[in-house]
Amino acid sequence: MPTDAELLAALSSRADRQVDFLRELVREPSDNPPGDCARHAERTAALLEELELVVERHPVPAEQCAAHGMRSVVNLVVRQRFGDGPTVALNAHGDVVPPGAGWSTDPYGGEVIDGVMYGRGVAVSKSDIATYAFAMLALRGAAAALHGTLELHVTYDEEAGGFLGPKWLLEEGISTPDLAVSAGFCHAIVTAHNGCLHLEVEVTGRSAHAADPSSGVDALEAANGILSALYAHRRCYPQRASARVGIGHPNLVVGLIEGGINTNVVPDKVVLRLDRRIVPEEDAVAVEAELREVISAAAAEFAGAKTEVRQIMLARPLTPVDGVARLVQAFRQRSRDIAGEDIAEVGVPLYTDARHYAERGIPTVLFGAGPDSFLEANAHRADERLRLSDLTRATQVTTLALFDLLRR
To answer: What's the predicted TM-score (pTM) here?
Structure first.
């Protein structure tokens, strides 16, 4: 039976190689949108194969990619078998949001300054591809003491909802895990998160010359009434706060508006897209019905305008399922051992791919490399960063927690 010190020594011997591995993941762009991530998947597969891991490539059919707004998705699965026993899936996504402006370093450079690596996706969640891969390598050396299987799932549509990543792998029967660990930050164990509903509201009127606007139906005026009603409605959300630590209350944002023909023409069509965050205590179907009622009532005030509401995406909240305590206990105990820190079990206000595992009854937590919060990591902002000490810590804790879960 290997000791903790021997497992940690195995990690330490590969520490520089792990940093190089992560840098190479950052240097290969994988922006989503546009969601053409096959090249990054192949680069990741090659890097994993250089570590002598066997990589399965699972391309998603083109028509399914197109239906979800993706150009290409190739999911990667790495299996490390230790004999009969539970299967633990380790999921991290390789797609990232575009870098945007305001960077002080090359967003695809993976530059290290004072022990901090910078680059798009370095914290969310390319670091956890590195975390989980190198934990697998360390545990491969302890195979005689283990049973069960570790699976690394590297997926590429988290930024589009994860429907072609973890959900697809599970529905296709490519993976049937008993437990799952998804990308997160190592200063907390996440067992719950918000869901998200995206609706598109199309308001149709009738164009007319600006010299005689009464001869038309102003779609923008009707859309403005709908917007005002939605903003008034969201004022009640603070009174619906979740009881789970870290979740907060529901939120609503109208993030996209487009429409109109020209400055001197009454707008004949306006399209709105809204984002409604759903706390774990809410029912997603009821949330959508409530919003549709608000929109319908507001639209009825504008004669001649027609309104159509379409669901674009629904991500249900993550809530703990039976058996999750086993994962929480393992990661919490090993965090105490490594960092002397009693990390909390919390929720987060965003949504992640972890929900796809939990929706199939698979106990799931989020744990991985990174600081205390997405804000501190500059996730989805300029100068996204990762302290390399957090990468080390996450890999050590993950390795020892998985050792406990799979120990004979």
So the answer is: 0.93
